[in-house]
Specification:
Layout: E1 2-4, E2 9-15, E3 18-25, E4 28-30, E5 36-42, E6 46-56, E7 62-73, H1 78-88, H2 93-113, H3 117-122, H4 124-140, E8 144-155, H5 160-348, H6 350-374, H7 386-412, H8 421-426
Antiparallel strand pairs: 1-4, 2-3, 2-5, 6-7, 7-8
Family: Belongs to the band 7/mec-2 family. Flotillin subfamily.
GO biological process, one term: protein kinase C signaling
Keywords: Endosome, Membrane
């Protein structure tokens, strides 16, 4: 079965399985019925009215003292709680308060006996601290802690404290009367002395006033001269300062104009830089890009032309090499042919030449007839100028005959003008 308690109460469980007993301050615990037992002890703060009536002090004066103390069982300290359970378990809150009260009262009476009435009455804090210190050390052994202790009242039945008050009051009143008389005496003396000093001060004051008047007049005259001088200097200084101020203002204006002009120049320079950058971005950069593109294009065209020229040169060289080789082969063939013709001419001599001539006669006739074929008209006149026409015809035939050796040489390669009697025969 579960049992609970608040923070102002502690539970102690004993019996089977609980050795030593279990102490719970503000919580819950499970208790087995019949074989375990649960007990409770209060942790409330107890207010004690500690009275000590007619206790004799160190000088034998009986006085009555009343103090207020706050005490409680310390549930958070396990050792003090265990001690309190051993001493107060089963007792009610009132019984615990009585035990604590008697202990505090005993200590309070003991401390009163060691002090005088004056010490207790005049220094209550010291008395309270002593009672708190001594009572706390004793109550701790019972598991009780003293939260606070305050001296509430001190009185006696013999009017001792009242007499102390009267004597003090009489002393104070005496001191007050003496003080008042001394004050009045001093006041009269101070008044007479003050009157004397007043008259003396009055005469001295009049003398000083006369001296002051004289000094005033002298100094005033000197001051007037100095003031007038200072006024003149001040006026001149003022005019000079005005001129300086005007000059400084003009200089400041000039400086401002210089600064403004400098700022304008700076702005113009920045505007020029901006326009240059804008020109650079809008015109120069595209122009450079176009230039670069055209250069690349020209370079590509140049490389293309070079490659085409190289290809053409290579082609021409190859054609030249082929034509040279063909010419060389043709030359070798013609040389070989001429060599063979020479050998044939050497072997057959005139017969070979006649045979070749006969072969070439059709071509010779063609060459001879070419001039005649170019003539538009041939007129033969037998009467009148027949000799002239015959002579003209004879001249043309003679011209054809003179061309015959060249044609034969061209066709046969034989110079018939060098061929002995045959040449003469042709002519």
């Amino acid at each position: 079965m579960f049992y609970t308690c608040g923070p102002n109460e502690a539970m102690v469980v004993s019996g089977f399985g609980r050795s030593p007993p279990l102490m719970i301050a503000g919580g819950r615990v499970f208790v087995i019925p019949c074989i375990q037992q649960i007990q409770r002890i209060t942790l409330n703060t107890l207010t004690l009215n500690v009275k000590s009536d007619k206790v004799y002090t160190r000088h034998g004066v009986p006085i009555s003292v009343t103090g207020i103390a706050q005490v409680k069982i310390q549930g958070q300290n396990k050792e003090m709680l265990a001690t309190a359970c051993q001493m107060f378990m089963g007792k009610s809150e009132a019984e615990i308060a009585v035990i604590a009260l008697e202990t505090l009262e005993g200590h309070q009476r003991a401390i009163i006996a060691h002090l005088t009435v004056e010490e207790i009455y005049q220094d209550r804090k010291k008395f309270s601290e002593q009672v708190f210190k001594v009572a706390s050390s004793d109550l701790v052994n019972m598991g009780i802690g003293v939260v606070s202790y305050t001296l509430k009242d001190v009185h006696d039945d013999q009017d001792y404290l009242h007499s102390l008050g009267k004597a003090r009051t009489a002393q104070v009143q005496k001191d007050a009367r003496i003080g008042e008389a001394q004050y009045k005496r001093d006041a009269v003396m101070r008044e007479a002395h003050a009157m004397q000093e007043k008259v003396s001060a009055q005469y001295k004051n009049e003398i000083e006033m006369a001296k002051s008047q004289r000094d005033y007049e002298l100094k005033k005259a000197a001051y007037d001269v100095e003031v007038n001088t200072k006024k003149a200097e001040s006026e001149m200084a003022y005019q000079l300062q005005v001129a300086k101020t005007k000059q400084r203002i003009e200089e400041e204006k000039m400086q401002v104009q210089v600064v403004e002009r400098t700022q304008q120049i700076t702005l113009q320079e920045q505007e020029i830089i901006r326009k240059e950058m804008e020109l650079e971005a809008k015109i120069k950069k595209p122009a450079e890009a176009e230039k670069y593109r055209l250069e690349r294009l020209a370079e590509a065209q140049r490389l293309q032309l070079i490659m085409e020229a190289e290809a053409e040169a290579e082609s021409i060289k190859m054609r030249g090499d082929a034509e040279a080789f063909a010419l060389e082969a043709k030359g070798r063939a013609e040389a070989e042919q001429m060599s063979k013709k020479a050998e044939a001419f050497k072997q057959y001599k005139d017969g070979a030449m006649v045979d070749m001539l006969l072969e070439k006669l059709p071509l010779m006739a063609e060459e001879i007839s070419k001039p005649l074929s170019e003539a538009n008209k041939v007129t033969m006149v037998s009467s009148g100028g027949s000799e002239v026409g015959a002579a003209k015809l004879a001249g043309e035939v003679l011209e054809i005959m003179t061309r015959l050796p060249a044609a034969v040489e061209k066709l046969t390669g034989i110079d018939i003008s060098q061929a002995g009697g045959r040449t003469g025969m042709v002519h």
